[in-house]
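hey so i finally got around to running the thing on that chain from the lab meeting. sorry it took forever, my laptop kept dying and i had to restart like 3 times. anyway pasting the input first so we r on the same page abt which one it is
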Amino acid sequence: MQPTPTAQQLPPPSRESELARAEHRGKQVLLYAPRGPLGGFFACSRCGASELQPDLLDHRADCPYRPPRDR
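ok and heres what got predicted. didnt touch it at all, straight out
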């Protein structure tokens, strides 16, 4: 059985990929990996941030999906 790849192991989406087309339409793409005691993890397709719930993702500083921080 092959291990499930983590977001860090996935190549960045190519221009022709489903991920790129979804992002071009203004959609944030999250990947889901069904593992762990609580069902699975969500990961950002751009920066690889992963968490149990999508709203808890702490995107990298250079990720276009990182929410603006309060100053």
